[in-house]
């Protein structure tokens, strides 16, 4: 039995009459619990949260106190179970981040677990499928139960949405509007019998409701931004055919590529944020959400039943964010060069930009300069430092062409006398002055006929282009040697503490490595520190209460001269009492 309860939002109560228990979709204010017996229910066993907004979750503390299990969208866990940390960190002055994440709980509540995108599981007496439906919030989900789609605030009614402000994630954009359209169109793939909104009445003609709402959102985008979103066109036609067995995904923030096998499976090169309306770089975890919309077209248009393997050109989040999700949903294995794999699996060891939040397990660690076979293809991986030290050039032959995937190394934009080639180096990525000379030499040795990159158009390779890359590599090295001092880390190797982020326990030792000799370790007052070898230190933290991001540093002496504290690491310390 299904009860529809009007509260601060619509609370849906799905009742198991035989046990007089129920599962709730969202909590509202919780005041409806005073009337629980009138619905033929003695106990609410579980509540499924569609999104974190306060009108949906204000009643969670009361439900938690009664023993109800609380299930939340995976991407909004931090906004519910750890919302106090969010409140402490949320910028409110000179704020250009318009995500409605301040419409959140005032205090955290404990949750039983997270609902993972695309997953199916038993909750209480119900079989529940969770679908990612970003739009009203980046982390919103829809729950499919017995053919009914509980859509949260994805839409209110045909042609209407519940909140205008929620559609504007950045100061000048309408990202939520575009993402709502993409979410609704994909929801129709599951043929729901009705849409059950958090505000508004059930809609028994989902296709009509979604068409009218998409039309209205499209008009809003056209009016505000002066151009159509284009996102639905990308959703329906995400791939550009570079050759019959090589596709380029044009929907992703960083371009990914699909190598098709005649066996009906596929290999991906990179796969980060698919089908975006703009990525909030440097944003909080809940705003950076991978999902898999372009993969539906692989089955529809190319008969691909499984993504067997994904290989990254480098570790940056816009190239790997969806890898864990693909493994969970499709059983995809990640293969990576050994240096890249170590970063993916151990992100806390590194102080680097653009690291993904969680470790990404790699099924194969492939030494640089070696190859492997996947289906009918031979692929080889080569070290490609420049854009970042931890990067690979991936070579293979497909449809009679020798292809080299070079990630974000260079732009491929050179046109003699018209447009320059740009070397895409970032110093924080562990760049060295001779990297681009080395990559140019690699390209001349491998002689690809086509180069594919992470953000630019594929480049047909000619001898003149290879010569230009060689000239550019020498120029990059020359300008650095002219401008920077010989002791600059670009030339002598940077000073690092490993791990960079440390999870420690009060009174229990942890080890830290310094990347160079002549170091002393500086720790907070009251902590113990012992040097156990030339580069390794053993530290014992002592704190009265839990501490987040305590600082330790390496003071460096070189050739008898003290250079100062050149590297730091951050320590979270838990207490066991």
How would you explain this protein's 3D organization?
- The chain is α/β, with parallel strands linked by helices.
- Helix content is 21%, strand content 29%.
- A seven-stranded mixed β-sheet has the order 12-13-14-15-16-17-18. It has a six-stranded mixed β-sheet with strand order 1-2-3-4-5-6. A six-stranded mixed β-sheet has the order 19-20-21-22-23-24, with no helix packed on it.
- A hairpin with a 2-residue loop joins strand 31 (547-558) and strand 32 (561-574).
- It is globular and about 80 Å long.
Q: Which range best describes the helical content: under 10%, 10-25%, 25-40%, 40-55%, 55-70% or over 70%?
A: 10-25%
Q: Count of helical segments?
A: 13
List the uncertain runs. none
Shape: globular
Residue-averaged pLDDT, rounded?
A: 95
Strand content: 25-35%
Distance between the termini: 46 Å
Q: Report Rg.
A: 26 Å
* Global structural class: alpha/beta
Largest sheet: 7 strands, mixed
Q: List the strand order in the largest sheet.
A: 12-13-14-15-16-17-18
Care to count the β-strands? Answer: 32
Note the quaternary state here.
single chain
